[in-house]
Amino acid sequence: MVRALHDVGRRDEAGRWADAEPAHRQALQLNPRSAVARDNLGLALANLDQPDQALAAWQAASSAATAHNNLAAVLIEKEKYPEARRQLEIALSYTSLRFRGT
Predict the structure, then answer these.
(1) CB atoms near residue 54 (< 10 Å)
(2) pLDDT for 69-100, tens place per residue?
(3) pTM greater than 0.85 (yes/no)
(4) What superfamily in CATH does domain 2-100 come from?
């Protein structure tokens, strides 16, 4: 299993997102509680231009605000600045709601 996870990481690093996505899903089948596998799945999905699925994966691993922040980071790397800004605004709205106690 360690070797399989290492191979998945190498696919991510090489930008082979289409290869990495099913591998991350397989890792989640082996360990459904793995926040790392879920986070990596979100990263692969975001890079495959599947933002809704990426958000779902990230929200399952952390908070909605973190999920939108993660998507914004991917969009910034892709130089999709207006979309990234929108995701950051959504992330901040979750944060401000939490601090207001609503």
Answers:
(1) 22
(2) 999 999 999 999 999 999 999 999 987 766 66
(3) no
(4) Tetratricopeptide repeat domain (1.25.40.10)
